[in-house]
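Q: Please design a sequence for this.
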């Protein structure tokens, strides 16, 4: 019996060895995406995104490349993406196929074409489709303590955050400073502003803002104002963006020593930015003005401009100049306050 089992096992092994064997063939690599430019150049790689007139393609020879859409003659990608057009239309998930600057639809209605210039973004975020808000912001706190020949303590803080939706926007900004030298306070101020914007058709919008500030060493116990405004986005390109607002406001000023006052005022805001210097850096300028319509010589101008650039992770550094002008400043207080700073903050 034992010999029979051994014989059967040997016969089975012989038959198995006699069967033809096939090595598992390696999977064929996915075909590469291809972009042909109007100048005849061809870029091969993997298209990762398209947004605001720029297509990003990851290559083996040069890493990530950014190609302007208006320079593309044809494009073939192999990954299905959702596409949002400039007019808000959303195309179902499908590969990007472009021929002669025309975007071909291969989904539910094949044969339909769109101008490539009308492609706004691929795989848009939920907020871009009208679902929720996109939250961004910057926060930084600086603390300086010096002990020795002089004892100095300084605390500076700043918050600039916003929630952007498809139809509206919320903004909250705040900053402050508390300084002390040899046991004597020499600076104590803060300011906060909240805004709501409602977008209209095109680049225009309307909004309302509420702001408050205090500066002990400028004799200002509290200044606050509230009012509506009209705004317009003049430019929205990364290389230069600008929006401006003008409106009216009710202003109330409570001074520590000087006589309190309230008045109707004109209020305006200007915001500009640019990535012209490259390297993910940005130049920026923010300006706010309040004009007393009862006492027209009374004018308040606050201007901040600077250069910000990214550090590791989500941290950002910036060299900044802030100019605060108040033509109606009380006696013994300078009309112009200048602050030069270098700050490091966290962005999201």
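A: Design:
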């Amino acid at each position: 019996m034992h010999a029979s089992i051994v014989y059967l096992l040997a016969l089975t092994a012989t038959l198995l060895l006699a069967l033809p064997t096939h090595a598992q063939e390696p999977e064929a690599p996915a075909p590469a995406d291809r972009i042909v430019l109007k100048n005849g150049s061809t870029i091969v790689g993997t298209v990762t995104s398209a947004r605001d007139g720029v297509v990003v393609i990851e290559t083996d020879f040069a890493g990530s490349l950014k190609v302007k859409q208006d320079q593309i003659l044809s494009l073939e990608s192999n990954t299905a993406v959702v596409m949002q057009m400039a007019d808000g239309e959303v195309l179902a998930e499908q590969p990007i196929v472009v021929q002669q600057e025309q975007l071909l639809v291969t989904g539910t209605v094949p044969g339909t074409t769109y101008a490539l210039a009308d492609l706004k973004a691929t795989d848009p975020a939920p907020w871009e489709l009208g679902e929720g808000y996109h939250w961004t912001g910057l926060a930084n706190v600086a603390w300086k303590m010096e002990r020795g020949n002089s004892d100095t303590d300084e605390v500076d803080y700043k918050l600039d955050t916003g929630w952007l939706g498809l139809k509206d926007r919320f903004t909250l900004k705040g900053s402050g400073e508390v300084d002390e030298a040899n046991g004597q306070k020499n600076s104590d101020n803060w300011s906060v502003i909240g805004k709501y914007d409602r977008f209209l058709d095109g680049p225009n919008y309307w909004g309302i803002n509420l702001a408050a500030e205090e500066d002990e060493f400028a004799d200002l116990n509290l200044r606050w104002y509230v009012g509506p405004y009209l705004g317009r986005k003049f430019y929205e390109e990364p290389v230069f963006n600008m929006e401006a607002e003008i409106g009216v406001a009710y202003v109330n000023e409570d001074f520590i020593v000087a006589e309190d006052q309230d008045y109707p005022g004109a209020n305006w805001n200007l915001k500009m930015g640019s990535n012209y210097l490259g390297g993910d850096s940005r130049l920026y300028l923010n300006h706010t003005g309040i004009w007393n319509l009862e006492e027209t010589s009374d004018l308040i101008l606050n201007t901040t401009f600077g250069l910000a650039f990214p550090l590791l992770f989500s941290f950002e550094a910036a060299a900044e100049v802030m100019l605060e002008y108040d033509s109606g400043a009380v006696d013994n207080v300078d009309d112009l306050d200048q602050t030069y700073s270098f700050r490091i903050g966290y962005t999201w």
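Q: Thanks. Anything notable?
A: The chain has one helix and 23 strands. Residues 33-124 form one domain.
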